[in-house]
Amino acid sequence: MNQQTQKIAIVTGGGSGLGLATSRKFVKEGIKTIIIGRDSKKLEDAKNELGELAYPISFDLSDLGKIPKLVEDIKSEFGKIDILVNNAGINMKKNFLEVTDEDFFNVINTNVFSVFAISREVSKVMVAQGNGSIIMISSMAAKYGIPKVIAYTAAKTAIEGMTKAMAVELSPLGIRVNSVAPGFIFTAMSSKALDSDPERKNKVLGRTPMGRLGDPSDVAEAVYYFASDTSMYVTGTSLAVDGGNSIGF
Hints:
Blueprint: E1 8-12, H1 17-28, E2 32-37, H2 40-50, E3 54-58, H3 67-78, E4 83-86, H4 101-129, E5 132-137, H5 150-170, E6 175-182, H6 188-195, H7 198-206, H8 216-227, E7 238-241
Parallel strand pairs: 1-2, 1-4, 2-3, 4-5, 5-6, 6-7
Helix pairs in contact: 1-8, 3-4, 4-5
Family: Belongs to the short-chain dehydrogenases/reductases (SDR) family.
Protein name: SDR family oxidoreductase
Organism: Belliella calami
C-alpha cells in the first residue's frame, strides 16, 4: 500500500476498551492509527500489542486550548487525516440530587467540549483535503432514560445532536459524520459495574432481545463501516450496536 492511499486515523481514548478494539480493527485493515489517551502506560501496552501502524500520543483532551496545536502537529507529521473517532469519555454514577456543578462540568468538558474542539480542528484539515469521515461514540443513554448518569446522558444526547448538525454542514464539503451507539458491551469497566449491581445486570439482559452483552469488536466493526468507503452514501446517522436493547421491552 503506498503512502498516498494508506489512510490515517485518529482514535481518542484508543488505549483501552472500545477505543482499543477500534484501533485493533483499523490496524488489521492497514490503517495508520494515532491513539490518543491520558494514560501513557495503557498507550504503551496498546502500542506493543498493535505494532508499527499504531502511533500513541499522550494527551489530556480536557485541555481544550492545546487541541489546535495537537491536530496541527499530527497533520504536519502524517500529511493528512482521513478518519476521526471521538471515543474518549468519562462517566460518573451518582444520584441526580447529589451531582455538583463541578461534577456535571467535568463530564461535559471531556465528553462534549473536547469532542467539539478536536472535531472542529480535524474538520479544517478534512475540508482542505475534500474528504474525511468523523465517527462519534454515543450511548444507550442518548436513546432512553438511565438513572444515576445525568451528566453522561446530557453529554451523549449532545453528541447525537452534534452528529446531525455537523453532517449537514460538512457533508457538502466531502466529510461524512455518523455516530455509533453501543449498548451494554463486555469490558473490564462494564463487567465490574454490572457484577456489583445484580439488579441492574438482570435488567440490562432482560431488555436486550439477544440476551447477552456485546463484544468490543462488535462496536469496532460498526465504526470501521463508517470509516470505510462502504458507507460512502451514509451521513448524519446513529447506529445502535446493542443486541436490540434500545427497542427491547
